[in-house]
Amino acid sequence: MEHKKLGSHHLATAEKILAHPTSHNLEWRDVAALLEEIGSIEEEANGRFVVTLGAETQVFDRPRGKDLDTQQTVDLRRMLQAAGFTMENLGR
What we know:
Blueprint: H1 8-18, H2 28-38, E1 40-43, E2 48-53, E3 56-61, H3 70-82
Antiparallel strand pairs: 1-2, 2-3
Helix pairs in contact: 1-2
């Protein structure tokens, strides 16, 4: 699947999400900016975020600190992969 070419900052964020082992320094603001670029993200009144990527929509809580927790990263990795994003096709 072909995607629009990501800028270096978004590309680095996508690579952190897709990386194994799971990255533990993935900032929410960077992920939100990436999701705005490749899908959609909307904040609800209750502080949760509705993320749509490809055909999938999922609700995420804002992380307590600045970084995502491991489960959020795993969920985002699955969503990226389902939408056709892989390390091989990111463009580096």
